[in-house]
């Protein structure tokens, strides 16, 4: 034998349905199916992200997502029941990334929170991507009309806020926050609101460097009571 495969049989003796030549199940078959399905799902999400950003969620069909990903409708329906479900999964993946970025950036200090350094890290790693902001804005509009989607969006915003509030709470004995912000949760709400405002401006002027600069100044001013810029 030269090691090549014949028909639907792979080099390890299994067929595409995950059985061996004698008809018994292969232990590796579930792993291969899981990996293949994960790759298919990832490609569908990547393709959907590009199509949603270019056209808007309400103007996209399942067929367009499948065509962009290079898959059939069958591949789509083996991963998602509806376009709404895919849209939610896409939002969840990106939103989780942002929450993780913020938490990681804030975790690098000791007990004493170095506000300027933390703000610098947060603004550098935060996902300020115009395509993502377009998709996020679509999701916000969608959520405003669908209570179930709104709950999912509120859950993400709560997790993002909690990541900030937890870090500020740990620093309360070492770092004093401006009294106007109240407690750590109030400060976290102000941080998220500043992010919302800066990213809205970014959608209009597409200036990422300016957005990072404004976000840095706003967060520094909120958390220290000063602008962080030279007089």
UniProtKB/TrEMBL annotation:
DNA-binding region in chain numbering: 61-80
GO molecular function list: DNA-binding transcription factor activity; transcription cis-regulatory region binding
Transmembrane residue ranges: none
UniProt keyword list: DNA-binding, Repressor, Transcription, Transcription regulation
Ranges where the record places region Disordered: 1-35
Entries under Pfam families matching the protein: TetR_C_6 (PF13977), TetR_N (PF00440)
InterPro entries for the chain: BetI_C, Homeodomain-like_sf, HTH-type_TetR-like_transc_reg, HTH_TetR, Tet_transcr_reg_TetR-rel_C_sf
Domain called HTH tetR-type: residue spans: 38-98
Top-rank taxon: Bacteria
Protein name: HTH tetR-type domain-containing protein
């Amino acid at each position: 034998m030269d090691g090549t495969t014949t028909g639907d049989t792979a080099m390890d003796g299994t067929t595409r349905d995950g059985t061996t030549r004698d008809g018994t199940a292969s232990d590796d078959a579930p792993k291969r199916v899981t990996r293949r399905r994960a790759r298919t799902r990832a490609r569908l999400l990547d393709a959907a992200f590009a199509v949603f950003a270019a056209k808007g969620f309400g103007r996209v069909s399942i067929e367009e997502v499948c065509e962009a990903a290079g898959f059939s409708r069958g591949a789509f329906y083996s991963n998602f029941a509806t376009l709404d479900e895919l849209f939610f999964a896409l939002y969840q993946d990106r939103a989780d990334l942002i929450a993780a970025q913020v938490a990681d950036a804030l975790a690098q200090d000791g007990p004493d929170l170095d506000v300027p350094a933390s703000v610098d890290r947060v603004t550098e790693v935060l996902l300020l991507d115009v395509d993502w902001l377009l998709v996020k804005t679509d999701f916000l509009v969608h959520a405003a009309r669908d209570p179930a989607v709104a709950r999912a969006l509120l859950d993400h915003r709560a997790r993002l806020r909690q990541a900030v509030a937890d870090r500020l709470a740990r620093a309360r004995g070492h770092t004093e926050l401006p009294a106007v912000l109240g407690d750590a949760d109030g400060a976290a709400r102000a941080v998220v609101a500043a992010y919302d405002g800066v990213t809205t401006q970014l959608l209009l002027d597409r200036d990422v460097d300016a957005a990072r600069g404004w976000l840095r100044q706003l967060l520094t001013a909120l958390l220290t009571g000063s602008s962080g810029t030279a007089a």
